[in-house]
Design goal:
Layout lengths: L1 H15 L33 H9 L9 H12 L13 H9 L6 H24 L4 H4 L3 E2 L7 H10 L3 H8 L4 H15 L23 H10 L15 H13 L10 H7 L3 H17 L7 E6 L4 E6 L2 E11 L7 E5 L2 E4 L3 E2 L2 H14 L3 H4 L2 E4 L5 E2 L13 E4 L10 E4 L8 E2 L13 E3 L3 E3 L2 H9 L7 H10 L3 E4 L5 E5 L3 E4 L2 E4 L7 H7 L1
């Protein structure tokens, strides 16, 4: 089975690797400066790259990299590409540097080879930097993100006209604060020495003042990650200093900061430096897939962090705990625009929940419908009583839960167009928000204190203040409110970042990091 899995992984990885694709458009004529060399088009054939051929067609088959300053900056960008989570070896840095060192004595044939290889590598680098190395749409069926397509030839043509190549390259990178914090996280993880830790195992939870032989290894781990100051000698007693250090470690990993050493804490302790670095690299790749422009005002959800933030003009104005989809019914990754807020929503039962949960429940007990305030309608819109409900036609009926406190969507629903029929909503299980791990839903995102979020989104103190919203809620009548402001929504997935000089990690609840790193 392991061999089969490895073969499948290799197949998918090669199938998902990105080739640089030209975007259909009129390629502008590229004006070549300096003393150029003619390039025979036959020399482009071994690269099997349409975008490379189109580039040199636009230059009238002349070399373009006559500027020593430009060549050196591009080579420097390749060498430093590991800072962006890329691999310098993919851009032929050694061969290109050899050409550059001998540039003054290169023959025309060698200058042609250098020019072509530099262009081909630069095209690849631009594509990887702006849109990642892998096609995410082939990896994840429940991700719906618009590709950050960049016309590499137009980009290079613009760079050749510009007097600021560094600025142009910087513009290709994701500019979101999380991406920048991930780059910082990569620097931080690289500053740690290599570790030689063995796996920590405990039979029972360890609490303050316990004695346990594993505590020496645990303390070494806390010292290594700088959650605890180094000590000359370590004992097997769980003292108060170690307890406070453990709480810091737990906070950094999104665990309950109670100082109790249980399975989740031990699992986090058992990550090596290399595994954490791989996690950071996977997240750097992922952030290259995410939208470059989030919008002036946007809601952003980080699924593994169980957190929603409302951002206006780059300032976070609200944060909310959320409940997200469990592993078997994951919340999809997507970007959209909020178009509607519904107070006292009805809930039409979606197909998956209907098949896996509701039909079995009704089959066991017809009173389930009355208990949950659900009405059944046939294809003609006629009401079907519990007694007339036929299991053989169960999937053809429409099941609608009336508004009210017992409604699964709670008192507010926030809509945005998407092909998964997911949305943000209140819940009738508000006790879920006290849990540390909140991957408990069937795919939609449940929001704590959603009325405060809705009021802020509506941004209309005269018509939609707390008093008026409360009055509508008390009526238990459904009210549809169209959004006037342009507010984007981004439901995304990242499990690592940094805050200051501190590394932050979250549990990879959908097990995406390791596979993505292997494909990279």
């Amino acid at each position: 089975m392991n061999k089969i899995f490895i073969l499948l992984l290799v197949f998918v990885a090669f199938g998902c690797k990105k080739e640089v694709k030209p975007i259909p458009a009129a390629i502008p004529i590229i004006q070549v400066e300096g003393k150029s060399v003619f390039i025979d088009s036959i020399l482009l054939e071994p690269f099997r790259s349409k975008v490379l051929k189109e580039f040199y067609r636009a230059t009238s088959y002349k070399s373009v990299w006559q500027s020593k300053e430009n060549r050196k900056f591009i080579l420097k960008s390749f060498l430093n590409s590991d800072e962006e989570g890329l691999n310098p070896e993919r851009y032929n840095v050694n061969k290109l540097q050899n050409f550059e060192e001998k540039y003054a004595v290169l023959k025309d044939k060698e200058r042609v080879s250098y020019d072509i290889l530099l262009t081909h590598s630069f095209q690849k680098y631009i594509s990887h930097l702006s849109n990642g190395q892998i096609h995410h749409k082939y990896l994840y069926k429940n991700w719906d993100l618009k590709e950050n397509n960049v016309d590499v030839n137009e980009t290079i043509a613009s760079m050749l006209k510009s007097d600021s190549l560094p600025f142009k390259i910087e513009q290709l990178k994701p500019n979101h604060i999380v991406y920048k914090s991930l780059k910082k996280a990569l620097q931080i993880i690289n500053s740690f020495p290599n570790d030689d830790f063995t796996t920590i195992e405990i039979a029972n939870k360890i609490v303050l003042n316990d004695t346990n032989p594993s505590l020496i290894a645990i303390k070494k781990r806390l010292i290594y990650w700088k959650d605890m100051k180094p000590k000359d000698s370590l004992s097997a007693i769980y003292d108060s200093e170690t307890n406070e250090a453990m709480k810091k470690f737990q906070i950094r990993h999104g665990l309950a900061a109670d100082g109790v050493i249980g399975k989740g804490t031990v699992d986090a302790l058992n990550f090596s430096k290399q595994k954490r670095k791989e996690q950071i690299l996977a997240n750097l790749e992922r952030w290259k897939w995410f939208p470059k422009e989030m919008g002036k005002e946007y809601v952003i959800v980080n699924i593994p962090d169980y957190k929603l933030s409302l951002v206006k003009e780059n300032d976070t104005v609200r944060t909310h705990k959320v409940v997200v989809g469990r592993d078997k019914r994951p919340t999809p990754v997507l970007s959209s625009k909020i178009n509607q807020i519904i107070l006292n929503p009805t809930w039409t039962v979606p197909p998956t929940i209907l098949k896996e949960d509701m039909i079995p429940a009704i089959s066991r007990n017809r009173n389930y419908l009355a208990q949950t305030n659900i009405k059944i309608y046939d294809s003609s819109g006629n009401l079907v009583s519990a007694n007339d409900w036929k299991p053989s036609k169960a999937k053809k009926y429409r099941y609608v839960q009336s508004p009210g406190k017992s409604n699964s969507l709670g008192m507010v629903k926030i809509n945005f167009p998407n092909r998964f029929s997911v949305y943000l909503h209140d819940t009738n299980h508000r006790d879920f928000f006290v849990k540390q791990k909140r991957s408990l839903s069937s795919g939609c995102v449940r929001v704590e204190n959603p009325l405060k979020l809705a009021e802020t989104l509506l941004n209309d103190a005269d018509n939609w203040n707390t008093e008026k919203i409360t009055k509508i809620l008390q009526s238990e009548k459904t009210k549809y409110i169209k959004m006037n402001d342009d507010v984007k929504v981004h439901i995304l997935y990242w499990t690592a970042w940094s805050e200051g000089n501190t590394l932050i990690f979250r549990d990879d609840i959908y097990n995406l990091d390791a596979d993505l790193y292997q494909m990279l």
